[in-house]
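Entry for adenosine-5'-diphosphate complex. Fields follow.
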Amino acid sequence: MPRNQQDNPYAVIEHAVQKLKAKEYGAREDQDRKTMDEVFDRRAMLAIYKLMTEGLIESIDFPISTGKEANIFRVTSKEDKRFALKIYRTSNATFKRIARYIEADPRFHGITGNRRKVILAWATKEYRNLLRLQKAKVRVPEPIKFYQNLLLMEYIGTEQMPAPMLRNVLLEDPMATYKIILKYIRLAYQKAELVHGDLSEYNILMEEAGPVIIDVGQALTTEHPNADDYLKRDIENINRYFRSLDVKIKTTEEVMIQVKKKREVKKAKGGKK
Ligand SMILES: Nc1ncnc2c1ncn2[C@@H]1O[C@H](COP(=O)(O)OP(=O)(O)O)[C@@H](O)[C@H]1O
Ligand SMILES: [Mg+2]
């Protein structure tokens, strides 16, 4: 029986990936090709194919970023919506980096050991953290779907390009941005009961409307024994950055106290709207 593209998923996605490789990586280094081959292994391709059959991915438009743990691509859905697709690498190095976070997280007890399982749990974790943060009214990319080591989320940026990192923009009103970020740290802590754990001018994107917090895979619950250390480090990072912009920052201690104050939570629970 002749196989058409429909019943040969591998061929469909292979085609899409080859197109992308030719387009974006044609003239670049071997290293880039190697990374692409690592990201688009057979399993990842089948996972992408699954999202294609659901209409969530129609085309892979361009790579946005190649990080230590994941690659991010801009994709377009069947309905012509833009999304960001984060593909976690399943290599041993990635596994080693993230295993220590997962081990200490009570939500992930019993799944350490198996490399692939740990990485899948990691993608799930970022998805769940995004949901919790969104519910707490922290501006994050809206999570759309996770499947295996893929996370599909709202794309932050314009048609032409992804939104820049905080570190790469000239802020109109740095004080206002500083305050919004502190508010997000507080909402995350009090409402989502999460500490980002890797917050800095690298993991905040700036869209027209303001800052967007990203890269929440490693975020930890406020119950975590080291939560306060990570919270302190997050605040210090933000303070350091805004001090460099000559913003009159609050002391780390002052921010810590405000973030940890439970007043707001109680007020919300009291039913006041
Ligand atoms: N939803 C998104 N929309 C647009 N760009 C994004 C999105 N998520 C991530 N990026 C871009 O990809 C980069 C890496 O993403 P991040 O989640 O921080 O992964 P990493 O673990 O590699 O640091 C970001 O710095 C940002 O430029
Ligand atoms: Mg990052």
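NOTE: The longest strand covers residues 59-66.
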